[in-house]
Amino acid sequence: MSGKSAAAMAQDEYKTTLWPDNADSSFEYGLGWDSVNLYPFIEYGMKALTKGGDTPLIHSSLVALPEQDIAAAVVSSGGSSTYDQLLANEILLQTLKEKGTIAEFKPEKSYGAPVKNDMPEYMLQYSGIYGAYIGTFNIDINEGGVMSITSEQLPGSPAQIYEHSADGTFKSADGNVMISFVTKENGRTYLWIRQYVSVPDLGQTALSEYNAEKLQPQDLPTKTKKAWMQRDGKKYYLLNEKYTSIVYLVLPPTQLNVSKQLRARIRPSPNCKFRE
Fold first, then answer.
1. DSSP assignment of 147-188, as one string?
2. How far is C-alpha 45 from the chain's CA centre?
3. Are 79 and 41 members of one domain?
4. What is the CA radius of gyration of the chain?
5. What tens digit of pLDDT does each residue of 88-120 get?
6. Count of alpha carbons within 13 Å of 265, Cβ hemisphere only?
7. How many domains does the chain have?
8. What is the distance between the alpha carbons of residues 206 and 215, in angstroms, rounded to a whole number?
9. Which domain holds residue 78?
């Protein structure tokens, strides 16, 4: 591979699409890389690239520091590529300290506990149903500045609670999660989550992403609704695996469930007549 090609792969490809403002993150993709500005190495002023891989039982992660001419790869049976990445980070940081490249390790970070204040009334408009790749959830913000998030797909799980803070964001009580609402030029509102996650003995990872989009009522043709109602509650299996594949042993079938939250928000076309 030429040096020009290698440099192109390490460019900030993620910035060419809809992306949050700069924040610590372990996922800022390049061409083939999961991240080209991997946290925590950016704290040391170092360029770090990472690529992870997961199968049902085997996981791996490669972390490279091209300017330091070193890299670490971790492969594990069980766990996850995220844990492997954290271990690779730790191996590299220890190596850098032994070589004298860094004098000491940076402390883990937090966004700080929420600072109580009077929440502006306009923040109430961000309550509603939001959609993400994992499903839909309800965000409820009360006048006291408390935001609760509940998942429709996990109805038995407790609500996630965040409090409005003086800086205009919502934060978790421990200060490790900070949430904002961002309305972009396309007129759509996104839930921006920034988060630090610490794993004992393995260090800290960071996340910054537009996690979900606020959903609005939509016209739904009768034909479309009928097709999905016929699939409601049924289980489906992948067809792109051989019948002897281990995937069928370790992964359950996918059950399709029509959203009850969204069904109440559907705005039928004037000529449509729906039957429940």
1. EEEEESS-TTSPPEEEEE-TTS-EE-TTSSEEEEEEE-TTS-
2. 24
3. yes
4. 22
5. 999 999 999 999 999 999 999 999 999 999 999
6. 16
7. 3
8. 27
9. 3-99
